[in-house]
Amino acid sequence: MQQHLERLQSATEQISGFIYPNEIELHWGLLVVLYPYITGLVAGAFILASLEKVFKVKEVEPTYRLALLTALAFLLVAPLPLLAHLGHPERSFEIFLTPHFKSAMAMFGFVYAWYLMLVLLLEIWFEYRADLVRWGRQAGTIKKVLYYAITLGSRDLSPEAVAFDKKAVHAITLVGIPSAFLLHGYVGFIFGSVKANPWWSSVLMPIVFLFSAIVSGISLVFMIYYVTTQLRGRQPDMACLDKLASFLLYALILDLSLETLDFIHRLYESEESIGILSELIVSKLYISLTIVQILIGTIAPLLILAFSRFSRLPSELKRVAYFIAALLVQVGIFSTRWNVVIGGQLFSKSLRGLTVYKLELGGIEGLFTCIGLVILPFVILYVLVKLLPPWEDAAAEVVEGAAAAAGRTE
């Protein structure tokens, strides 16, 4: 009997790629990967916008309004992956009617409503109010009515009113910074608080999520600013690009340091799960973690940013290098979300085997749906930019037009 048990134990230890029948299904797919990725872009874009208003970093001023509109466009899409994953989006209003304060996932509805309604929309309203009044005087009938509705009928352009707008923007931004931290930090909290999953259970998870969000937001706004200025036939502000590249470099270093610290902490603890996690890293996640996330998405942009920022490259080459680094960062951050969400479901609860995730092309959880959800924020951003131009010269052109019209009237 004893020999039979020993042979059975030896055979069990050699099992690879096996999961017990009740552990086969992966409950979270690509839609749930997309959810923390989009919310991270929102938080990072808003934190970038706060650098100019709160910390007085004047070099990034050309991207301030663009960062706000980018955060709004992606925030409007942020809950859609979760709603699509749950299958009954019409039931989402029950979060507010029957609040469950002990559920971190349910509390997202309140965090989302607070950040959208009372922080981001208010800041955009006060930032644009005076310009909307001026634009309304020069616009056609449809836009004039629209601007009038957005400003709630406000027509006050007195120095006192404009000064109040600036104070309100500053105060709201102060409130918005911790709100942005809360918006994405709680996403990391959801994963980090799952004690039963050793891949997720880490006190550093919310902090890692937050710094990766800052990295992704800065790189996204950088790319949008670079592309849109080129499309408008203008030259990007090189001082702005250099400052954005510097912040991206420093944030990337901090993010890499935190992830390395988390990895070292797991190795030092060497709990019973270290065996299956090591097998997960060297087999199922080798390409997405080692190659894509670490080498392509972290090390490569770090080297490109460091060399480009502190070398004497021509401005044109430097801008292209910055853009490539920002694009690689986006690839790395998305891979990070993939490795957390999908990777945490690839091993058995018994820590004895691994499974695979099969990505579907069609269906509500498929690749095409997720591509559509990634494109949708850019469509919304295009509409917002047409309605609320974020460029520095937009307001100046309207003021000059109004002065010229007044001169002709006289």
Walk me through this protein's architecture:
The protein has a domain at 29-235 and 360-402. 72% of the residues lie in helices and 0% in strands. It has helices at residues 2-13, 30-53, 64-77, 80-86, 94-97, 108-138, 141-150, 159-192, 205-231, 238-269, 274-282, 286-309, 315-341, 367-387, 392-409. The chain contains 15 helices and no strands. The longest helix is centred in the middle third of the chain and has 34 residues, at 159-192. Mean pLDDT is 84; it is low at 401-410. The chain is mainly alpha-helical.
Q: What descriptors fit this protein?
A:
single chain; 15 helices; mainly alpha; disordered C terminus; globular; 410 residues
Topology:
Elements: H1 2-13, H2 30-53, H3 64-77, H4 80-86, H5 94-97, H6 108-138, H7 141-150, H8 159-192, H9 205-231, H10 238-269, H11 274-282, H12 286-309, H13 315-341, H14 367-387, H15 392-409
In short:
The protein has 15 helices and no strands.
- Helices and strands, in order, run as HHHHHHHHHHHHHHH
Q: How many helices does DSSP assign?
A: 15
Sheet with most strands:
none
Low-confidence stretches: 401-410
Tell me the overall shape: globular
Number of strands: 0
- The value of Rg in angstroms is 25 Å
**What class would the helix/strand composition place it in?**
mainly alpha
Mean pLDDT: 84
Q: End-to-end distance, in Å?
A: 108 Å
Fraction of residues in H or I helices: over 70%
- Proportion in β-strands: under 5%
